[in-house]
Amino acid sequence: YSIKSFREEYDIVRKKYIMNTLMFKSELLNINGIKVYPSKANFFLIKVRGDSNGEFGLKLLINHGVYVRDCSDKIGLDGEGYYRIASRTFEENIQIINGIKNELD
Q: In this predicted model, what pLDDT tens digit does every residue of 53-85 receive, in sequence order?
């Protein structure tokens, strides 16, 4: 296994991961009921409107098998409804997006 072939394979995987994250961000931005904060990483901070008791994250986990980090306790945020959500594979991102949409309906 050469350094050159490793770099070529790594570059392909890296570009695919970046594209998945950009598509995930685009899909998140099109969901009514959440605010997506800018990020340069593979995860996003979102604010779920009307989530005053933190149930949104629990419902995503129980009903869709999707874990999101509850960030409501972070200094500088103004209360409940904040979650950190990470981009994953294309298939997992579709599951996450569908779960969010389902729970907001």
A: 889 999 999 999 999 999 988 999 988 999 999
**Per-residue pLDDT for 52 more than 90?**
no
Sequence-separated (6 or more) residues with CB below 8 Å from residue 96: 24, 64, 66, 85, 88
- φ, ψ of residue 66 to 5 degrees: the values are -110, 120
Q: Quick one: which H or E segment has residue 15?
A: helix 3-29
Distance CA 66, CA 47 (A): 16
Percentages (nearest 5) of helix, strand, coil residues in the chain: 50, 15, 35
Residues 6+ apart with CB under 8 A from 20: 87, 88, 89, 90, 93
CB within 8 A of 87, min separation 6: which ones? 17, 20, 21, 24, 25, 42, 43, 44, 93
Task: Express each pLDDT in 8-40 by its tens digit.
Answer: 999 999 999 999 999 999 999 999 999 999 999
